[in-house]
Amino acid sequence: MVDLATRNAPVTADPAEFPGVSIALGAPLARWSLRARDAKALAKAVGHKVPGKIGTTEGGMACLGPDEWLLRLPEGSTIPVGESLPLSVVDISERAITLVLEGPRAIDVLQSGAPRDLSKFAVGEARRTIYETVEMVLIREGEERWAVDVWRSFAPWLREALVTAASHLR
User: Is the pTM of this model over 0.85?
Assistant: First the structure.
């Protein structure tokens, strides 16, 4: 008999609620790291629009650098891998989880440990940044909703740091 290995989330699924902000585990996602010199070839290969400006998002894809994109889709989604084309499509679904911060004080919690001025983030903007020393991809999904993609190994520490910051809001 074959046993199916299942991966548990490294943080609790129970949301942490504070005045003005909640911190919750996001839904599981399929994720791909995409690299290509030619964005048009990448778009054709994977069948998704490719945002052309660093920091922009479109249809679940974020442009993180001049030749680097992150594609986040619902769990179970698949994309072509672009075989024999000059590009890289790597499934990184198991590498990271998403923490979702929501509420009018979410920006304050994130700003407490992030060096970027988050008030300048437009809705739909995505950037690689850090919270204290932990690398993350930060996506502003709405005026008061932020998605934080963080590597699994750093997720427990980051969640605890965010919860601690939220508990000290004044």
Answer: yes
